[in-house]
Structures are given as C-alpha cells and as structure tokens.
Amino acid sequence: MADEKKQLLIVTGMSGAGKTVVAHDLEDMGYFVVDNLPPTLLGSFWDLINNSNDFHKVAVVIDLRVKSFYTDLLDEVNSLEDNGNVQATILFLDASDDVLVARYKETRRLPPLANDGKGRLLDGIQEERHILTPIKNRSNYIINTSNLSTKKLKQKLINTFSDRKRQPFSIEVMSFGFKYGMPIDADIVMDVRFLPNPFYIPELRPFTGLDKRVFDYVMNKKETQVFYHKLLDLLETAIPGYIKEGKEKLTIAIGCTGGQHRSVSIAQQLARDLAKKYPVDITHREVSRYIRK
C-alpha cells in the first residue's frame, strides 16, 4: 500500500536557472534527490520508492538534457496522479534571458538546444522557453532566480518545502594543537600560544585543561583575563551577523602548541559562556593523546 506521507517534488525549468543548486539544497533538507531522470522512467521510479520504507521526501530533477523525452513529462505526471499513486508537486525554476546569457558566458557552456554551436545563444534559450511553457503553466511553484543569491534561494526553498522554516544555528568550540595541524573545517581560528604555559609547571605538565588545577592556572592569569574578555566580546558581536547571513553552524577553533593545556582551558570557558545563548558542542581534538590509560 502506498505511504500517504511520501512526497514527490519534480524540479524542472530553464537550463541555467539553478536546478543543480536546488538539488543540493533539497538534499540538505532531507530529500532523496535523483538528477536527470528521463520522464518515461518516472512511473517505474515511483513504484520503487512507493514500495520502500526508506524514502519519504523525494525530488527528481528533469530538464532538457533528456530533450527527446521531455515532452512526455506532463503525460507521466498525469498518469501518476490519475492512478492515485501520488500528488506530485512541480517546482519550475526560471530566470530572465539576459541573466541566463550572462550565466552561460560565465561558465562557457551552451544551453541544451544550442549544443551544435551553430545557433545564437539567445535563440537556444528562447526555444527552450517555448518548449517549457506547458510544464511551467502546470507548475505549483515558480521561482525566478534572476536576482537571488544562493543563500536567498536556499531560504526560499526552506520557507516553501521544509517542515522547519528556519535552519537551527549551532556552535562547535574546538581545541587543537598546532603541531598536529590546523583544523581545515574551522570558521574562526584563535592562537593562544602567547598565554602562560602550564607545560613548564612540573606538577601540571601531565594533565590537560580539563583538570581544575590546569584550568585555574590558565584562566586566573591577568593576561588571560584581558584576552578572554576581548575574545568573548568579539564573538558575541560577530555571531548575530553570522546568523543573519544564513550560517547554520559556526566552528571556533582554539589552538595552542600541543592542544593539551591552554587551548583546552580557553575552549572550556568559551563553550560555557556561549552556551548561555546558543546550542554549543565542544571537541578537544588532542586530549586523548594525553590521558593516561
């Protein structure tokens, strides 16, 4: 029996209007996405999906890359709906001719109907627009991407198709050691190797910043206090800007020489303070190197 909760979203529209970007965004929103599916396979594909419990939100991208089959799209959609298999939702992506021309020139590609290189770029775009008119008229949603940045396009998709109208924002605070390499996924990296180092205190050397004695030694130093309050003030000023710009996760990496004492202590305090306003995870990348087994 068909699962009534399953959703089929058909993404189509003008070549160059952003279907690849939309496919990636839909994947981020939890859709199972199939790109460049020939329309004649839509019915068989949906039978497979309908008999599986693994997929509930499905999107297929169909465009004139399969131009010899494209005219079958409306027939296939009507057949699916007439048989009661699914109520398909069609999203049509559009853009103005001048924007499409500019995008093609930037990527040095040609629209599907100008692949022979003999016709004008604009002629190929206009012919494609003519062919797509019936499916555009049948579409449930039309998004013109001419003046949309990728960030604004993603938010428009979230507002339209996601159960969550806004992506959650979270912070990861990470400590690390420079001698083991910088984290490549960090958004902000702060070097704290200038702070007093417990490594040179024999009774503290074996421990990490997770130990209260090491933590207190680092955090109670005057230079640490001055630095830390400036750092926290900087981050509390910057974070709302990251959220406004659509950032979903911010990774703040605090590094010292070995990732054992200073960076761990600073990261611990920073995570505590930021957690008063935001969801925060904390990772100590090197600590396992120093824990006695």
From TrEMBL:
Molecular function terms from GO: ATP binding; GTP binding
Gene3D superfamilies, per the entry: P-loop containing nucleotide triphosphate hydrolases (3.40.50.300)
Ligand binding (ATP): G13, M14, S15, G16, A17, G18, K19, T20
Residues noted as binding GTP in the record, renumbered to the chain: D63, L64, R65, V66
Domain RapZ C-terminal: 170-287
UniProt-listed Pfam families: PapZ_C, RapZ-like_N
Domain RapZ-like N-terminal: 7-162
Keywords: ATP-binding, GTP-binding, Nucleotide-binding
Annotated InterPro entries: P-loop_NTPase, RapZ-like, RapZ-like_N, RapZ_C
The protein's name in its UniProt record: RNase adapter RapZ
